[in-house]
Amino acid sequence: MPVLHDEDELLLLGLRDRWYPLCPSHQVRPGELTRLERAGEELLLWRDVSGAVHVQEDRCPHRAARLSMGVHMGDRIACNYHGVQLDGDGVVASVPGSPGCALEGRKALRTFPAQEHAGAIFAWFGADDDAEPAPLQVPAPIAGGEWENFLCYVEWDASYLLSLDNLLDPMHGAFLHRNSHTMHTGKREAAFQIRDTDTGFVFEKTDQRGVNFDWSEWVDTGGLQSVTLDIPYPPTAGPGGPFTIVACVTAINEHQHAGFFWRCRKVSGWERDSWRFLYKTRLEARHWQVLEQDRAMAEGMPSDAWSRENLYQHDIALVRLRRVVRAEARRQAAALADRQPTRAAAAR
After folding, report:
1. What is the spatial distance between Cα 324 and Cα 333, in angstroms, rounded to a whole number?
2. What is the pLDDT of residues 73-130, one digit of tens each?
3. Quick one: which of 22, 8, 44, 7 has its CA closest to 250?
4. Pick from 36, 125, 32: nearest CA to 71
């Protein structure tokens, strides 16, 4: 059964019924068991003999021991405490200490639907374990085709909500990142507007485009939440037009989060090779410097920052997104509360 959350927990740990990126694909190596905490859940990640990734609760259904301390057996895992074996669907395959017991053949381990895209592992955190997940629709710049991307992965000691604030705040580019090789030009004052889309909204400067960090877009497909933005590139930065960033943030717990920043350009053929070489040899270190500035600012924010703010016109996207996320957290909390008596009655 999913852990039931109240409104504040859902807000701080992440909405349910969403796909969240968990970690870069390379962190889950064949033959190994990987333990992670994400969205307030304790998780076990492992690959079977075909290479398919499995995401499950890190808790043996027998005595709740850590499965991540167990044994990888190729197509299944075994708890190291009493040897209980479970497959990738969460079904108890064997109980060596008591063959034929009622636990064998039973689906007893909470298992999260998982997929891999653009070098990252995604999992579906559903409010109901029995419901089918929504389709995972990743943004076009990280879906392949004419786009090339590099994944930049971070873990910060700050709430994921602070990173969302930062991504929906284009104006900080002209100040915090003013010494960046791509954000040193353009005006340091601006008026903004919000433009609605089918999947969210765009927050943009009304009098400047393609000069600095001039807009960002909040996207919620009903399955995946992300932010997309463009950073203009000078000709010296190679082919492909603007530098597009697709960002997803996943709570680890209330005070930490994982950040996924795909740096993308629309290039193909020899231009793809040219940009990949240029990025790795000249540009990547500069982009890490920008992220380091964001990290220091987020981790340095006081715990009561939201309660002591004095917002102005540049912050209307933050206000809107906070309201949207809060309203959905309230709706989900109410729905979970309504289901709780039914589940309690079924368990008796």
Report:
1. 14
2. 999 999 999 999 999 999 999 999 999 999 999 999 999 999 999 999 999 999 988 8
3. 22
4. 32
Give all domains of the chain, ordered by start, each with its CATH number.
7-125 (2.102.10.10), 140-326 (3.90.380.10)
For residues 182 and 173, give the distance between their C-alpha atoms in angstroms, rounded to a whole number.
10
Residue with tokens 């057996």: 73
d(CA 109, CA 77): 12
Residue with tokens 């008796």: 348
- Model-level pTM? 0.94
130 vs 121: CA distance, rounded Å: 21
Distance CA 28, CA 34 (A): 6
Q: What is the sign, positive or negative, of the torsion defined by CA atoms of 53, 107, 93, 68?
A: positive
Tokens of 125: 């955190």
If you compute the radius of gyration of the chain from its CA atoms, what whole number of angstroms results? 22
CA dihedral 79, 82, 85, 91 (to 10 degrees): -100
Sheet hosting strand 33-38, strand order edge to edge: 33-38, 41-47, 53-57, 111-112
- Altogether, the residues listed in the chain come to a count of 348
Ranges assigned E (strand) in 192-280: 192-197, 200-205, 215-220, 225-231, 243-253, 256-266
Compute the distance between CA of residue 188 and CA of residue 174 in angstroms, rounded to an integer: 6
Q: What is the pLDDT of residues 139-187, one digit of tens each?
A: 999 998 899 999 999 999 999 999 999 999 999 988 998 887 677 777 8
Q: Is 104 helix (H, G, I), strand (E, B) or coil?
A: coil
